[in-house]
Design a protein that fits this description.
Number of strands: 5
Strand order of the largest sheet: 2-1-3-5-4
Order of helices and strands: EHEEEHHEH
Distance between the termini: 20 Å
Radius of gyration: 14 Å
Structural class: alpha/beta
Shape: globular
Length: about 150
C-alpha cells in the first residue's frame, strides 16, 4: 500500500521546525521503502490537498503545543486531529484540521485509508527526532495499529 509522509513546519521559527527536522532525518536514510513517498509540506496548507487524493496512508509530521511534555511525541488519528486541533475558521492559520475537514468535500480522487499526525512537543532532541522519523515510517508502511 502507498504511504506518504508529509513533514510540515517553518525552518526559520525554532518552535515550528521539528517536522522539517524529521524530514532531514528521513532524507538521510539510504533507502526508503519504494511505496513510501516523502514530502516537504512546509507551510503550504490547502495546497497539500492533491497529495491526499491518491488513497493509501498519509502521515503528517508537525510541531504541536500543549499536548505533552517538551521533547515528547503524540499521535492523533484523522478524527482526533479534527476534534482536538479543529478551529471553525478559514485563514492562513486554519491548519491541518481545516484541511482534513474540507478533504471529503473537495476530493477528486481516492480518500486516504488512514491519516495520522505525528506531533512533536516543544524543542526536541536528536533522539526524539529519530524516534519520530521511525514512527512515521512504520505508520506509513503498516498503519497506526502497529504502534499503539
Amino acid at each position: 500500500m502507498r504511504g506518504i509522509i508529509i513533514c510540515i513546519g517553518n525552518r526559520f521559527v525554532k518552535e515550528d521546525a521539528s517536522g522539517l527536522a524529521v524530514l532531514a532525518c528521513l532524507e538521510a536514510i539510504q533507502r526508503l521503502p519504494a511505496e513510501i513517498e516523502l514530502v516537504e509540506g512546509g507551510l503550504t496548507g490547502l495546497n497539500l490537498l492533491p497529495l491526499l487524493e491518491q488513497g493509501g496512508r498519509v502521515v503528517f509530521v508537525d510541531a504541536v503545543r500543549g499536548f505533552a511534555q517538551p521533547n515528547e511525541i503524540v499521535l492523533f488519528n484523522h478524527q482526533e486531529i479534527i476534534n482536538t486541533l479543529g478551529e471553525p475558521y478559514f485563514d492562513h492559520g486554519a491548519g491541518l484540521a481545516y484541511l482534513l475537514t474540507v478533504l471529503p468535500k473537495v476530493c477528486d480522487g481516492d480518500l486516504p485509508e488512514e491519516i495520522v499526525l505525528v506531533g512533536l512537543e516543544g524543542e526536541c532532541t536528536a533522539e526524539t527526532i529519530e524516534r519520530a522519523a521511525q514512527l512515521s515510517l512504520t505508520i506509513a508502511a503498516h498503519g497506526l495499529k502497529d504502534v499503539r
